[in-house]
Request: fold
Amino acid sequence: MLRNNYYTYLIVTLLVFGCQNLKKVQKDYENQIGDTPFDKTRDNPNFKFCDSTKVLHKRAYIRYSGGEKALEEELIKKYNFQPNYRTFSGYFIIHFAVNCNNKTGRFRMEILDTNFRKTNCPEGLESQILSLAKSLENWHHAFYRGKDYDGYRFINIKMKNGKIVKS
Reply:
């Protein structure tokens, strides 16, 4: 009987400590997903999170006025096609933050080919696409469970022969 109590105590103790450690690991992991640390060489020092300890990682809660269609139309309208861009087909994946004041910052971009491998693009195209993304001003920050949040968002821009393709 004493032996069974010892094993029961041991199992319960291991479960309690194991669950507490798992929760800590999960919380630490959740805090790192998608976080973009400030980089003084490429980030605007005036962009600030309203509360950097509570940045929401649910991109669906960050909206663009008029929805995805309006976002796409604005990108196409502002895009300035150049003949040397014809050689590029692929994707621009742009990750950025939107604070609780609807301001954007901490832009990061990946350029992928049509097989989703990292690649390069013609001169000038990368800077134009990044400038277009930074120029978008109709963002609405995350509002979740009755509270305002800073958050992260990404947009995908598909291109074929140097032109933006509608989704």
Remarks:
- The helical segments are 2-32, 67-78, 125-135.
- The chain is about 30% helix and 25% strand.
- The two ends are 68 Å apart (CA to CA).
